[in-house]
Design brief:
Blueprint lengths: L1 E3 L6 H14 L6 E3 L17 H6 L5 E2 L7 E2 L7 H4 L3
Parallel strand pairs: 1-2
Antiparallel strand pairs: 3-4
């Protein structure tokens, strides 16, 4: 599981897990963007990544048929006919 858009995340911070993901080549990997919760310390930290930028960093194609709480997507190298979705 990878989180993107955490308070204070720079382009370099974002690139480090991207490099690891490219090297490891996971079969499946969950990625989600950070949403501040008012009861957590991180919600008060400065230097927030915009919601637009955090979402841009996560490739999502849409909502799963089973539930509005599940999203679906695929890597640029995957095709629906062969690889399905993640």
């Amino acid at each position: 599981m990878v989180m993107t858009g955490f308070s204070g995340e720079s382009d370099e911070h974002f690139q480090a897990p991207c490099d690891l993901i490219e090297k490891v080549r996971f079969d499946h990997l969950g990625v989600f963007w950070y949403c501040p919760e008012t009861v957590t310390p991180a919600a008060t930290w400065g230097s927030k990544v915009s919601r637009w930028e955090a979402r841009r960093r996560v490739l999502v194609e849409g909502v799963r048929l089973e539930s509005d709480y599940l999203l679906t997507g695929r890597l640029a190298s995957q095709t629906p006919e062969i690889d399905g979705q993640v």
